[in-house]
Structures are given as C-alpha cells and as structure tokens.
Amino acid sequence: MRSSEQPQLARRRLALPLLLLLPALLPRCRATSTQRYDPTWESLDSRPLPAWFDRAKFGIFIHWGVFSVPSFGSEWFWWYWLKEKRSKFVDFMKDNYPPGFKYEDFGPLFTAYFFNASQWADILQASGAKYVVLTTKHHEGFTLWGSEYSWNWNAVDEGPKRDIVKELAVAIRNRTDLRFGLYYSLFEWFHPLFLEDESSSFKMRQFPVSKMLPELYELVNKYKPEVLWSDGDGGAPDHYWNSTGFLAWLYNESPVRNIVVTNDRWGAGSICKHGGYYTCSDRYNPGHLLPHKWENCMTIDKFSWGYRREAGIGDYLTIEELVKQLVETVACGGNLLMNFGPTLDGTISAVFEERLRQMGTWLKVNGEGIYETRTWRSQNDTITPDVWYTSKPEKKVVYAIFFKWPISGKLFLDQPIASLGATEVKLLGHGQPLTWISSGSNGITVELPQLNFHQMPCRWGWTLTLSNVT
C-alpha cells in the first residue's frame, strides 16, 4: 500500500462481506481428541500445554520487516518518527531522506536480496535452539507472506516479491529438528479501520473482522505453526479481538490443534493471566520459580528487537551474559526466546551469527543440564553465588551449573545432600568422576579437575552432574 489512507474505502466495503464469509475460512475438520474447549478463558486455560514446549527450553525469535530498512533506533521507528515525533528519529529522516518521503516508501527498499532460508536454517540449527518464532507481521502491518487481506502491503507484492514465511518454514522443516513458530501483531498502528474502531472505544469491530482474524486463520491453515506468538493488543480487550473464539477453534479444529502452543498476549488484561504460557513482559526474568509455565523473550541487542545500523559492540549482550540468562531462566521453570534482527537484505550480521553459534557450542557440552530438565527444590545456591540448579528426577540427577571457576579448585554447594557410596559427581565434557566431601546436612565440597585453558570443556559456564542427592 502506497499510503495508509488509500485503501480506506475499499476496506470499509469489504468488512461486511468478510464478516458473513468468515465461517467459510475455517477448515472442515474435527479434533481427534475427545477434549473440547469452550470459547471462555476458564475452559481454554484448562488445556494442558503440549509437553514438547517445556522440554525444548530454548528458542530463537526473529524480528524482520520494513522497519529493517531504516534500521535505526528501534523496530518502532514509524511510531516514534510519525506519531511521537522524537527528535532523533525526525532528525534521522531529515538528514538521510528527501522531503515528503513516507514510511511506505521504505517498502520497495526491503529487498531481502541475500535472504537464503537454507542458510538461516543451518545457523538456527547450530544455535542449539529447539524452536524458532518468525515475526510475520509487526505493528506496521507489513506481512511477510502474501496475505489475501493485506492488499499490496506484503512481501509478495512489495519489496522481496517472495513468500518469506513459506521459504523459512520449508527450510526449517527440511533441514533442522526445530519447531516452527510464528509471531503475529493483532493491531496495526495506522490502519484506518483500527483507528476508527479505537475512536468508538472498540464498540465497532471492523478491523478484527476484516483483517486480523482472517489473517490469523490464513496463517494457521497455510503454514501450520507449532507456536503462535500473539502480540500488540492496541489497548483493546480480548472480546474485541474475539481471542477466546479464535483459540477455541485453534485448540479444537485447527490442523495444529494437538501440538500448538500459545502465549498470553490476546487482549488488554490477558498478559500473565491467560493463555498457554506466560510472557508477562518483554525481557521478563523473575529470578524465582513461577507456578505457571513462562517464557523469557529477550534480545541480543540490549535496546532493540530489530536490526540497528548504529549499534555499537557494547550494545550487544556477551555470550557469558546470554548463557547466564538461559541458565537462570531454565532453573526457574521458564524457556528462553532469544531474539535477533536481520538486515534489510536478509543477512544475519556477524555479531548475531557469532552469538548463535557460541550458544550452540555451549549447549553441545552442557545441553544435558538444560534440555528436558525440570526445576529442583532449590533454584540457586544460597551460599555460593552464580550457581543454578536443574534436575531430571527420573534419572535421579541434579545439575549444578556454575559461572565462576574457584581459584582454590574447590566448589562448595550448600544445597545438595549427598550419600557416601551412592552419590557420584561429574563435570559435563570431562567424564571422570570427581572427588567430593560431604558437609553433612550443609551440602558438599567438590574438588574440580586441574585443567589448563585448552582442556576446559567450555568457556562460559560449567555443569556438574550430581547423581543420587537429595
């Protein structure tokens, strides 16, 4: 779409017919499970979370769209420039683009020229992640697939002239063991129908009926995501979006009804309260155990979800910081969803690729203490700092992941209670059993192996396996 005003009349004319045709958009299939869910939060929240999600522990988030063209400041570039008129965004446009340049003019510049889905898939596989979530449409409204309801404001009609979602879905499913997920923003900042609905205090529902709901059904039926990551309620309640009605269809009738997981961003007031798992807020890391499954969605770039050309090396989290985020999150029962933003031409910048591969290198050694683990009775050590615990009760194993190798070579853990003749302690990546001394009911002291730099199993945190401890 060349401007946000041009399609306004056409969209109004389409709203009523689409409302009448909406049932025809649903596939004519029935859930194989006898469990049916009603379109109420009480019923929907009773659905067990598919087990694969908790076992996965680690996923990759990808924010890519037209905002990757200015690639300045934030993926909220359009809003900050046009709506809030923040000076640094206004000055950026004055200094770099001619007068009269509109945000829509960035569309043709979003080329994805070097986008290679197979290459992306290989890098994602190397990261050690178990699922990936691609941003299919952010708040700017540009879809990365040729949606029938986006007019020409999509990647098939504008810019790349390619179905990005399909290409990545095929590559992920053909080349990796990752689960494929999709992010979708419910609202759009400047869509005329949403703005009209907003002006009516959301008594009118033109936008969800003619745009948002048809696109969601289209995404699920066409690409069959195993994660559906909703976002951006625009201040509208869930009944405006018909979130419960859509989720009832997703859980009862959709082609992914038995495996799909969803988050908690389905309308104002639903976050950290309703949905399959909770995100609560961006970069959420409570540091303690929660009673409900949750996810820490966070960014390698400390300040933005999308790629920023002006980012300095200090703006990126180090691999040590990222590994610590993963360990703390898993120890407290969460999953980590680590985000990067590609460039406008589809390149994964060197710093992002390095962090992804470094995480994969660490997980090759320490993944046993992350994947398919459960929380332990203590999430972290109360005496020795930077020690976090996970467990596999069925194997009678507790994992102690620590980030500071003691100069003395002796690591004191105050939480495990060991048994002589039964407890065995090993260092992942080393193999040989380690000597330990019991402190009675007050933990154990482990004598770590004397290793030089090149003998260390990894560089950014180490994992002890403690068998038969209480």
From TrEMBL:
One of its GO terms (cellular component) is lysosome. Keywords: Glycoprotein, Glycosidase, Hydrolase, Membrane, Signal, Transmembrane, Transmembrane helix. Residues 379-466 form the Alpha-L-fucosidase C-terminal domain. Residues 1-31 form the signal peptide. PROSITE patterns: ALPHA_L_FUCOSIDASE. It catalyses: a neolactoside IV(2)-alpha-Fuc-nLc4Cer(d18:0) + H2O = a neolactoside nLc4Cer(d18:0) + L-fucose; an alpha-L-fucoside + H2O = L-fucose + an alcohol; a neolactoside IV(2)-alpha-Fuc-nLc4Cer(d18:1(4E)) + H2O = a neolactoside nLc4Cer(d18:1(4E)) + L-fucose. The chain crosses the membrane at residues 55-79. Residues 27-368 form the Glycoside hydrolase family 29 N-terminal domain. GO terms for biological process: fucose metabolic process; glycoside catabolic process; regulation of entry of bacterium into host cell; response to bacterium. One of its GO terms (molecular function) is alpha-L-fucosidase activity. The record marks 297 as: May be important for catalysis. It holds the Pfam family Alpha_L_fucos. InterPro entries: FUC_metazoa-typ, Fucosidase_C, GH, Glyco_hydro_29, Glyco_hydro_29_CS, Glyco_hydro_29_N, Glyco_hydro_b. Its EC number is 3.2.1.51. SUPFAM superfamilies: (Trans)glycosidases (SSF51445). It comes from the Eukaryota. Alpha-L-fucosidase is responsible for hydrolyzing the alpha-1,6-linked fucose joined to the reducing-end N-acetylglucosamine of the carbohydrate moieties of glycoproteins. Belongs to the glycosyl hydrolase 29 family. Homotetramer. This is Alpha-L-fucosidase.
